[in-house]
Design goal:
The strands form 7 sheets. Strands 6-4-1-10-11-12-19-20-21 form a 9-stranded mixed beta sheet, sandwiched between helices. The protein has a 5-stranded parallel beta sheet with strand order 26-25-24-27-28, with helices on both faces. A 4-stranded mixed beta sheet has the order 3-2-8-9. By secondary structure, it is of the alpha/beta class. It is elongated, with a radius of gyration of 27 Å. Helix content is 34%, strand content 23%.
């Protein structure tokens, strides 16, 4: 029943944003996908001969954000410079088919940016980009954009019966938003009710006071790095090659700071910036120092991007002036923070990077529409993650349609149909269903030998930290190894039956090991909860949970309520009870 009510609530938000007027401005481009086959090498070089079988073109960048807004049920208008060329004509066709109000400005001397991808065997072999960002707009082009912005704003206001429209700014450093255009948007901020900003360089937008910003992890790190004056010693450095392109992700690796004799490389962690040689990360895993953001050198598993982002949400809000900051972590989901100071984590369904692009556009579109419809931030974050997740099932440029989002909202009801008591080997599939619905997962474990008031209060508090609660219970053998041969008092069948009867518990699973580590790796909880009056750092499972992107919370017990105390009282009463026949 709770899952069905949640589904209806989320669906009501999707219905409430129908027809919402949204102006999108920024870097529009054309995505082109070419699907080929190859069965031989050419004579001239050891290179495959490709035979083109199919070609698809789609709106990209700001244009894809506008397409997603229209597909989700909003009324989208796009203002962007578009070249007077074949690619520009195709982009206009894409906008028309999607129902976007095409208010783009023709630029005869500037080519439309294009990303052409060649695939064979469902693998991207190469990408060819055209339309350089250094092709600056001339004075006439800037004047045309300002006129289009003013006209489109009033057009959307009239269509919404005088209600202020929403503004989405997509600045991907391709030259569509020069200084005069940025200054106009800042000066006219009061004409828009909700403002969303997605920018490679957030520092360019001081003064806009956006409602929400959606930086990638590296974009957020670069903004923080620029606010610091001096580097610290013994730092880990995020290095990337010189001359990185400004229009999309490339490899960012973490290694040990120069001079310590190490050349370790721990793998890709984000996106670099176009004009920087290094973002430095050092210290206790949370500090910002010198030229960058810092990460603990003793962590041993690379950069915990989620933990780092969560620790810096307040600073990011302060530096951007935004009410809401959503740091996107590509296949690791997102971390979201708002004015209440609460940190929210969502997960995505990982897919091969070559299969889809533009999931962030779907995320931005759904987040913007939800906030514009006055949805609570947890709801907006949940719908945004769900919109991004449902778009990445196929190769191409991601577009989330309203019907797809509503269909995906059926997932919680399906997942709720699963039995409360589940087997360990079936838990992963169940959690995946919840994650696809954008639900956050809380995980706890224990013996729960004699269920009492303290347990119930603890589990209710744990459930309040997320959308569902998974309770892992030690098997009888595991309890004996941990507690002694006289425990458990109640067999595992009785213990799990009582837990499953609690309305705050969604799923119960039994584990045989002494540690729940294997189940934690399966569930990848957003929040891991333990009972006790000690700090989270003392929880043995804390490093594993944080490495997987989760938070660790400890909840104090209800005073004078414990299984051991209850068992001691029962035993004490048994030794002092009257002999049979004298009662």
């Amino acid at each position: 029943m709770a899952a069905a009510a949640e589904q209806r609530r989320l669906a009501a938000v999707v219905e409430s944003w129908l027809g919402r007027a949204v102006l999108v401005v920024g870097d529009a481009l054309l995505d082109e996908w070419r699907f080929a086959e190859s069965d031989r090498l050419c004579r001239e070089a050891p290179a495959p001969v490709l035979t083109l079988r199919r070609r698809i073109s789609a709106a990209g960048g700001a244009a894809n954000t506008a397409v997603n807004i229209a597909a989700l049920g909003g009324r989208a208008a796009l203002v962007a410079p578009v070249g007077a060329d074949v690619a520009g004509d195709e982009l206009h066709d894409c906008l028309d088919r999607a129902g976007v109000w095409d208010r783009t400005v023709n630029q005869p001397v500037r080519a439309t940016p294009v990303k052409r991808r060649m695939l064979a065997g469902n693998q991207i072999l190469l990408r060819e980009d055209s339309g350089a960002p250094d092709d600056a707009l001339d004075d006439d082009g800037i004047a045309g954009l300002l006129t289009a912005l003013d006209s489109a704003t009033e057009e959307l206001r009239a269509a919404a019966d005088g209600t202020a429209p929403t503004l989405v700014v997509c600045d991907y450093a391709l030259g569509a938003l020069p200084t005069p255009v940025r200054a106009w948007l800042v000066a006219n901020r009061e004409r828009y009710a909700t403002v969303a900003l997605d920018a490679h360089d957030l520092a360019d937008w001081r003064g806009l006071a956006p409602t929400v910003v959606t930086p990638s992890f590296a974009e957020a790190a670069r903004l923080l790095a620029r606010t610091i004056a001096r580097p610290a010693a013994n730092a880990l450095h995020l290095d990337h090659p010189d001359g990185d392109p400004s229009d999309g992700p490339s490899e960012l690796t973490v290694g040990v700071s120069p001079g310590d004799g190490s050349s370790a490389r721990l793998g890709p962690t984000g996106e670099p910036g176009p004009a920087e040689d290094r973002v430095a990360m050092t210290g206790d895993g949370l500090s910002v120092t010198g030229t960058g953001v810092t990460v603990n050198a003793t962590a041993g598993a690379g950069v915990d991007r989620a933990k780092l982002a969560e620790s810096r949400l307040a600073e990011l809000r302060a530096h951007t002036g935004a009410d809401v900051v959503a740091v996107t972590l590509d296949t690791d989901g997102a971390v979201v923070g708002g004015p209440d100071g609460e940190r929210r984590r969502s997960h995505s369904t990982p897919v091969p990077a070559s299969h889809a692009v533009g999931a962030g556009d779907a995320y931005l579109a759904a987040m913007t529409l939800a906030l514009a419809a006055d949805a609570p931030l947890p709801t907006a974050a949940q719908l945004a993650q769900l919109a991004a997740t449902v778009t990445v099932s196929d190769t191409g440029t991601c577009v989330c349609r309203r019907k797809d989002l509503l269909a995906a909202l059926d997932s919680p009801a399906d997942a709720a149909g699963q039995p409360t008591l589940v087997a360990a080997d079936g838990l992963a599939a169940i959690v995946t269903e919840h994650r696809r619905a954008g639900r956050s997962v809380v995980f706890t474990n224990g013996c729960f030998d004699v269920l009492h008031r303290g347990h119930v209060r603890y589990l209710e508090q744990a459930r309040a930290l997320g959308d569902l609660l998974v309770v892992a219970v030690n098997s009888d053998g595991s309890v004996r190894r941990l507690k002694g041969t006289d425990r458990p008092v109640n067999p595992v069948e009785d213990r799990v039956a009582l837990l499953a009867a609690l309305t705050c518990v969604d799923h119960v699973v039994v584990f045989e090991e002494d540690s729940p580590a294997r189940l934690i790796e399966t569930v990848r909880p957003d929040v891991y909860v333990k009972g006790g009056d000690y700090p989270p750092e003392m929880v043995p499972e804390a490093p594993l949970v944080r490495r997987l992107g989760g938070q660790v919370r400890t909840l104090g017990y209800v005073p004078d309520r414990s299984t051991s105390a209850i068992i001691d009282r029962i035993r004490a009463q048994g030794t002092t009870s009257p002999v049979a026949g004298q009662a």
